[in-house]
Design goal:
This protein has 490 residues and is of the alpha+beta class. It contains 17 helices and eleven strands. Helices cover 52% and strands 9% of the residues.
Length: 490
């Protein structure tokens, strides 16, 4: 038989098999658009703006629907009620980590962000306990953040009120805070290794939010066999891991088991305690992955939010003026801001929340998965099925936040001007997999922003009405456009 005929027959069988598999799966799953063989629903989605596509599809199929990314079904949850029911009311059942092929190539199932089952639970429990022991959410870490805020101010003074791109300066501050917990040291803002790491964090978020990476995550074979920007991500993560490994080796040499200095020391001590346990999760692989996860997540999300925050404050001058008036009234010009001030600064608190709500940093969250076969809203969802939760649909809900596409701190203020909490504020996700460092991130955002606005007037180099706050990438994350501003000392 001719080789071409054999290939055609094999391809035909493969197509028929994929069609049969898709149809058999769809029987018990939520409704959704009809997938194409092999390609699934990828051609029906705007890979430049997945959130927009999900919003359109939810109007047709409701708040719970099925999409096929390649041959695999993914259940999409759209809107507050569906997201809350899954992540909070059924938190344990939806606590798995869903498919994210590119991240799986990097983490290989280790660490916190992309692990599952017993490993994930142990790594998360240990990390939370250790971070709290080193002051996360307490006065001791607040001292670190305040000191770093002072360093940030000094670095901004060096710009001499000249136009500057704040990207790296704003990345240094949160990175130094997490470094003080993990490595027990901070970097100078001009340190070459430091700036190289920050550049790689920024580059990775930018590439991971590109259309190409959305395609790669749908068709994992592309990652292994085709050239492209995904290889740059893998190279950058390898650089980070080699840096972390070097730090771990330094810690091994100077370790004092009776006097742990930081997160790495605590993990190494735990490894020693469990060295005879054949089932232990406290391994070298988990140490490298966990530290890399904390390092990256503790740096990039907060620094990107700060960068977006200053852009919004440049555009909305009246908002900035009201924040500075509140800072002058409550804190003054000479005392460092502290977390106790927040309860007496409802407008500033509302502005910080509105910044996070408006920018919607991680629009479709990290993927979840169901931990066993479950019944959800009369649909049967098999164990391991990936769940996509639209945080955009919660943060931009027009019933909770009137005119959600408008930046308006009043979304978090009541009629008397007091701060108003909202259950819809899921900027850090929700449930069992919500952001590990939420408390630290909230502290950093409040203290860094209030300290900057206490010491400087922000001046745009273009007319504020011409400032475009539209993200330049809208995939995994919303990446703000590059811009310059002047920090004018008060």
């Amino acid at each position: 038989m001719d080789l071409a005929v054999v290939l055609v027959l094999c391809l035909s069988c493969w197509l028929l098999l994929s069609l049969w598999k898709q149809r058999s799966q769809r029987g018990s799953l939520p409704p959704g658009p009809t997938p194409l063989p092999i390609l699934g629903n990828i051609l029906q989605l705007d890979v430049k703006d997945i959130s927009k596509s999900l919003r359109i599809l939810s109007k047709v199929y409701g708040p719970v629907f099925t999409l096929y990314f390649g041959l695999k079904p993914t259940i999409v949850l759209h809107g507050y009620e569906a997201v809350k029911e899954a992540l909070i009311d059924m938190g344990e059942e939806f606590s798995g980590r869903g498919s994210f092929p590119l991240a799986e190539r990097v983490n290989k199932g280790y660490g916190i962000l992309f692990s599952n089952g017993k490993r994930w639970k142990e790594m998360r429990r240990f990390s939370l306990m250790t971070l709290r022991n080193f002051g996360m959410g307490k006065r001791s870490i607040e001292d670190h953040v305040q000191e770093e805020a002072r360093c940030l101010v000094e670095e901004l003074r060096k710009t001499n009120a000249s136009p500057c791109d704040p990207t790296f300066i704003l990345g240094c501050a949160p990175c130094n805070v997490i470094c003080s917990i993990i490595f027990q040291n901070r970097f100078d803002y001009t340190d070459h290794d430091f700036l190289s790491l920050l550049e790689k964090f920024n580059e990775n978020l930018r590439i991971m939010s590109s259309p190409w990476i959305q395609v790669c995550n749908n068709f994992p074979a592309l990652i292994d066999y085709l050239p492209g920007s995904h290889n740059k991500i893998l190279k950058n993560f390898a650089y980070l891991e080699s840096y972390v490994l070097e730090k771990i080796k330094e810690h091994q040499v100077s370790l004092d088991i009776n006097n742990p200095r930081d997160f790495i020391d605590c993990f190494l001590i735990k490894m020693e305690q469990e060295k005879h346990n054949q089932q232990t999760e406290f391994t070298f692989e988990n140490l490298i992955a966990t530290v890399s996860n904390l390092f990256g997540a503790g740096t990039e999300t907060t620094s990107t939010t700060l960068r977006y925050a200053l852009l919004l404050l440049l555009k909305h001058r009246k908002v900035t003026a009201k924040v500075q008036e509140e800072i002058d009234r409550v804190i003054g010009r000479h005392r460092s801001p502290c977390m106790q001030d927040r309860s007496r600064m409802p407008y500033t608190d509302a502005v910080v929340h509105e910044i996070q709500r408006y920018i919607d940093l991680i629009p479709t969250n990290l993927p979840h998965a169901v931990t066993h076969d479950i019944k959800f809203r009369n649909y049967l969802i098999p164990k391991g099925t990936t769940i996509l939760t639209s945080l955009t649909s919660v943060l931009h809900d027009d019933k909770e936040f009137p005119n959600p596409e408008v930046f308006d701190p009043a979304h978090f203020l009541d009629d008397s001007g007091s701060f108003k909490k909202s259950d819809y504020f899921m900027a850090f996700s929700a449930g069992k997999r919500m952001c590990l460092g939420e408390g630290l991130a909230r502290m950093e955002l409040f203290l860094f922003l209030t300290t900057i606005l206490q010491k400087f007037t922000l001046e745009s180099i273009v007319d504020p009405k011409d400032i475009d706050t539209t993200p330049v990438s809208s995939g995994f994350g919303h990446v703000p456009p590059l811009y310059q501003l002047c920090f004018i000392p008060v």
